Amino acid sequence: MLGSVTSMHDRLGRQLRDLRISVTDRCNLRCPYCMPREHFGPGFAFLPAAELLSFDEIARLADAFCASGVRKIRITGGEPLLRPRLEQLIGMLDDIPHVAELALTTNGVLLARRAQALKDAGLDRVTVSLDALDPAAFRAMSDAPLTPARVLEAIGAAIDAGLFPVKINMVVRRGINDHCVLDMAERFRDMPGVVLRFIEYMDVGTTNGWQAQDVVPAEHVLSEINARWPLQRVEPGAPGEVATRYRYTDGGGEIGVIHSVSNPFCSNCTRARLSADGRLHTCLYAAEGTDLRALVRAGASDHELAEAVAGAWQVRSDRYSAERFRRRSRPRPGTARRAPEMSYIGG
């Protein structure tokens, strides 16, 4: 493993601190905002196993990222629990000296039976996606024959395993689940160790049919909750934190909102993303990525991998969301960027 650590900054002065690793492009749900069934149906060609990074390759690359300043690693997908023996990878990443936090984002469908094993392997905390408690809204948002009870069981298992804080992500889409905001807030607001976060519906990828009118601004969500249970702003807990934090003034816990569309956080983004096939993306909207898998499989040394990571980050100037915010709309037809799908690059 690489020993020395260098603090790495991009052209806009943003430090590399967070790495999100996608371990698969497959998922067992077909959420229309991420993996719409009409595009990801039975005939869709997912990445073959040989093109996925192996656990050894992921660990080597993670070590290279840590040599450039990464301290937090999050495992994503697709649905990461579809990757067999994921606990083995967690243990390998936990052995990297400079990793201060190891987290996982999951839809929760497969989590209940594996939460304790993941914790035992070295996982620190988990984020679970849950877009509604209402069964009809949940089905509409997940496009799968499941009920919220399956995900609630997973959240309970994560709490029992000590994967704190358990963060719950709710993507809010107008006309689909925006009527569920207060129900979600009420369910989780007095639950110790749980933080509910409301996320604006994002224009990631090219298949989800994103329209600006489908976005429920985070300020509207806050206003609705504050009218029922007064809120107070909480200072960020760490540099590069994407959620704006609030606590209930009556002591009922904490929530977060992610203004990914209405108030982008590009100016302090500290995240790099490693796709399942080994491409480094320096922005969720980056059309191209740096092929690190090719370097690994060509026999590059640990030092050469660290140099490749540092080189890609140092020339980074991505700020798509902020530029889109200034335009107040998506680019006109014919000028839109060719962005990777969320299920490929990881959330």
Topology, element by element:
Elements: E1 18-22, H1 55-67, E2 72-76, H2 86-94, E3 101-106, H3 115-121, E4 125-129, H4 135-142, H5 148-161, E5 166-172, H6 181-188, E6 194-200, H7 218-228, E7 231-234, E8 244-248, E9 254-258, E10 271-274, E11 279-281, E12 290-291, H8 292-297, H9 302-314, H10 320-327, H11 342-345
Helix pairs in contact: 1-2, 1-9
Computed Rg: 19 Å
Number of strands: 12
Q: Give the overall shape, derived from the CA principal axes.
A: globular
How would you sum up the major sheet? 12 strands, mixed
Strand content: 15-25%
Quote the average pLDDT. Answer: 92
Tell me the number of helical segments per DSSP (H or I, 4 or more residues long). 11
Query: Uncertain regions: pLDDT < 50 for 5+ in a row?
Result: 331-337
> Helicity level, as a percent range?
25-40%
Order of helices and strands: EHEHEHEHHEHEHEEEEEEHHHH
Report, as a whole number of angstroms, the end-to-end distance. Answer: 27 Å
Please list the strands of the largest sheet in the order they lie side by side: 7-8-9-6-5-4-3-2-1-10-11-12
Derived structural class: alpha/beta
